[in-house]
Amino acid sequence: MKYFGLSAAVTLSLVLLSQPALPQQPAPKPKATPRNISSKEKSDAKLEAERMRKEQVRSLLVSLASDARSFRDQTVRARSLARIADALWDIDAEQSRTLFRKAWEAAETGNRESDQRLNIREGAVTIKPEDLNPATISSIASRPDLRKEVLRYVARRDRTMSEEFLEKLKENQPETKADTPSQDLWALPDPLQQRLTLAENLLREGRTERALQLADSVLVHVTISTIDFLTLLREKDPAAADQRYAAMLAATTNNMTADANTVSLLASYIFTPNTYVIFNRDGTASYSAIPTPAPVNLNPQLRRAFFQTASAVLLRPQPPPEQDQSTAGVAGKYMVVKRLLPLFEQYASSDITNLMRSQFEALSSLVSDSLRRDENDSLTKGITSEEDSFAEQASSLLEKIEHADTSDERDQLYFKLALLALRKDDLKARDYVGKIEESEFRKQAQAWVDWGLAVSAVEKKKTDLALELNRTGELTHIQHVWILTQVSKQLAKTDRVKASSLLDTATAEARRVDGGDLDRPRALFAIANALRVVEPARVSEAMFEAVKAANSTDGFTGEGGMVTQTMNGGGMISVSPQPVPDFDIEGVFGALASEDYERAVELARGFQGEAPRANATIAIARSVLKL
Question: In whole angstroms, what is the distance from residue 331 CA to residue 367 CA?
């Protein structure tokens, strides 16, 4: 074809040359040389475009705020007004303050209506026992305190207003003196815990200075929540965290109400971050464990300070039983010393270690033989390696299975063995479940294990394993969609054809979900989110279908998407919620707004529900404002 085109061109030229001369056409006017646009003009034009877009977004948010004030649902009203105020702050702080107060008023009204509906008075449920049912219990348990949600947004923006609202939260709560330590080892009294929770939210958002302004006044108390905060702070600012931990140690040394459990919690900051073990007065343990590496580059002086504080508390004379007001009692104190003694032997000075050995022997004479023989895993939780712990537990379970008297007992042990293997992402977990005899228990256990293995495979980008589990596992429609969409995003760069095919399969799976089920729009939004990575040209079409599905479903809000796996068999009930941001509308509307603002606004207005329409509009505004 190229050769033919060239020949035709040459022939045409020869013909033209052989013709008589034609009247000469007037020469075209020379094109005006474009004027060079200076960098200053470009910059000014860009600034003007940004100003106009911000004004456009401001108008969009103000219009939404006007609508939100008349939303029928007080919960949606309060949340929407607070979020609009947060988004508006940088371009109209005064308007934001007004909206924050309107949000607070809506939150108070929403709380009152919720309390009246559930017969809650002064924080206590007054429903008669015979009137309670699972739906009512679930409503009470999930009842949000809307004021706290509003306060979370206020705390980001206005310190004075957040302190004002914190004071209002105390009005219907018993007074708590700031210098009175809490006997609750898990959390602070509610007003103080709310302050710390706000600070933690700010810390996770990277607002460290503002977080510390809120938190410093409560960090004198030793609870799991305060140590948790310091552990998180150490990830952001190690020097600030260590400084406050050192102050906490010094305060504990002089605090005569500090006891063995106080020391156990303090130890977690240095030796077992995010793993907390406390002991009851009978020596039994409660713990929260998220395996996390011990901090690196720890100042040796800080470690010495811990052992000095720990020994000062643990070596105090044991009071008579009738005078012992500690949370641990003698049995709990014995277990704490037994748990921490290996750490003293490894890191503390010989003088302190010898004193602790003597204290351990003295406490041993005060507890029962059964407690002295107790070697449960709480004594080593977070201290010994997980591999050693797994091996010991597996060996123990296999031995118990051999000596089990009934099939029910064996089923329970096989499930425990499966859970142990699941923690290691070991596919033997499926084999162990397969040995459970009772069919319904086996089916539920299989679903639990398959989902756990699939989540791990996706998180670790083991795409072949994730797809195999998707093919053979005992999974629901929404779980299939989640696996397929996540794997498709992981394959987008290396195998786009396969990634696209997986999304086609996911779409077919989503359409199998019942039309009135909340999982249907969530699944379709997950597909739209995946298409952003795999095939951006198809996003708009996918979002249109998702919005249509949302309008056919009662209760869809466009946020809080998750997959909840429930296990109810073998005499146990377990629930595992897995948050899934891709089920929500924020990300996909924010991305579309940066590419096609008008189309994003048009789709947002297509929602019939108050909540998804508000959430989509706010996501668009935040994207444009780069919040």
Answer: 6
Query: Which residue has tokens 């095939």?
Result: 535
The residue type found at 393 is Q
CA angle 334, 337, 340 (to 5 degrees): 150
One-letter amino acid at 153 equals Y
Residues 6 or more apart from 368 whose CB is under 8 A from it?
331
Instruction: Tell me the C-alpha distance between 509 and 520, whole Å.
Output: 9
CA-to-CA distance for 246 and 154, rounded, in angstroms? Answer: 31
* CA 617 – CA 64 distance, rounded (Å): 8
Contact 381, 289 (CB under 8 A): yes
**From CA 240, how far away is CA 247, in angstroms rounded?**
11
pLDDT tens-digit series, residues 212-233: 999 999 999 999 999 999 999 9
Burial class (CB in 10 A: 0-12, 13-18, 19+), 4: exposed
d(CA 476, CA 455): 13
Angle (nearest 5°) at CA 213 between 212 and 215: 55
- Tell me the C-alpha distance between 505 and 286, whole Å: 45
Supply the pTM of this predicted model. Answer: 0.79
pLDDT for 389 equals 65
Query: How far apart are the C-alpha atoms of 563 and 485, rounded to whole Å?
Result: 14
Alpha-carbon gap, residue 5 to 12, rounded angstroms: 11
- Torsion, Cα 382 384 386 391, to 10 degrees, reads -140
Bridge partners of 278, per DSSP, are: 286
User: Crossing angle of helices 146-157/93-118, nearest 10°?
Assistant: 160
- 442-471 burial, b at 16+ Cβ within 10 Å, e below that, comes to bebbbbbbbbbbbbbbbeeebbebbbebbe
pLDDT band at 38 (very low <50, low <70, confident <90, very high): low
- Quick check: 177 pLDDT over 60? no
Structure tokens at 415: 């499930």
**Count helices and strands in the chain by DSSP H and E runs:** 28, 6
Mean pLDDT of 548-572: 88
Average pLDDT, the chain: 87
Structure token digits, residue 101: 């107060």
| Per-residue tokens: 454 | 């699939």
Alpha-carbon span 127 to 136, nearest angstrom: 10
Compute the distance between CA of residue 177 and CA of residue 244 in angstroms, rounded to an integer. 20
Of the candidate ranges 133-142, 250-259, 539-548, 603-612, the one whose mean pLDDT is the lowest: 133-142
Nearest to 161 by CA among 205, 96, 225, 116: 96
**Residue appearing with tokens 């029962």:** 368
387's enclosing H/E stretch is helix 386-402
Q: Which two tokens stand for residue 262?
A: 């106080």
Whole-number pLDDT of residue 140: 42
Q: Is 622 a residue whose pLDDT tops 60?
A: yes
CB 478 within 8 A of CB 511: no
> Which among 259, 275, 181, 264 is positioned nearest to 219, based on CA atoms?
181
The CA distance from 367 to 282, in Å, is 9
- pLDDT at residue 297 in the model: 84
- 565 pairs with which residues across the strands? 576
Residues 249/269, Cβ–Cβ less than 8 Å: no
State the Cα–Cα distance between residues 96 and 90, nearest whole angstrom.
9
- Written as six digits, the tokens of 108 are 């108070």
What's the Cα-to-Cα distance from 398 to each of 421, 432, 435, 592, rounded to whole Å? 12, 11, 13, 54
